[in-house]
Amino acid sequence: MPVIETNLTSGSPRDKELYEELVAELRNPHPRGQPLIEIKQMNREGLRHVHVIWDKWDGCPPETRAAIIREAFAEVKGKDYEKAIAITVAATVPEAGEAGLLPFEVKPYGWHKLDKAAMEEVRDALLAEGASRLGNSWLPSLRFATMEQAQEAVRLLKQRSPKYEWDVVITHFMSG
For burial by CB atoms within 10 Å, which of 63, 136, 148, 167 has the most? Predict the structure, then answer.
């Protein structure tokens, strides 16, 4: 098997742009939308798992994604913090959905029966909340790691577009 070693000094301009955007998000996080950054404290020794779910990873190789995440955390939180990251997961929303990392999806009830004008309203509302344009569906995918996050999105969508009945659909069942 080959050994692949990656760092941003040899990266493409797009890799550097992703790095700069991730650093900016870590410094000034947005309350909704992408990227979704989840940091899981794993034990008392301070080990962490970091998930960065972001459609902008599309087309970026996995080893480069991990390097970008690690370097961005080192820049913002320091080298010691970065060294305590045991696992990085960098996935697009569809990839994370398929892997079961985002098992809760928010959709309007009866979305498949909407006319074109209503569908445009629904699309705009979902995209404003950070839904993914990637994938096969003409309905953007708004997915979350927890039911609480999904329910908050439903609450916000009901405020934004009250004429639609928004609902949470469980796409993967969690074990344990």
Answer: 167
pLDDT in tens, 22-61: 999 999 999 888 999 999 998 878 899 999 999 999 999 9
CA 168 to chain centre: 17
What is the per-residue pLDDT across 137-157, written as a single tens digit (0 to 9) for each?
788 999 999 999 999 999 999
Q: Burial, 27: exposed, middle or buried (Cβ in 10 Å; 0-12, 13-18, 19+)?
A: exposed
Domain ranges of the chain: 8-91, 104-170
Q: Is 133 exposed, middle or buried (0-12, 13-18, 19+ CB in 10 A)?
A: middle
Listed residue (23, 4, 14, 13) closest to 71, CA to CA = 23
Nearest in space to 169 (alpha carbons), one of 153, 159, 158, 12? 153
Query: Model's pTM, two decimal places?
Result: 0.85
- Asked if 144 and 102 touch (Cβ cutoff 8 Å), the reply is yes
Which of these CATH numbers, 3.30.479, 3.90.320, 3.30.300, 1.10.3470, describes 8-91? 3.30.300
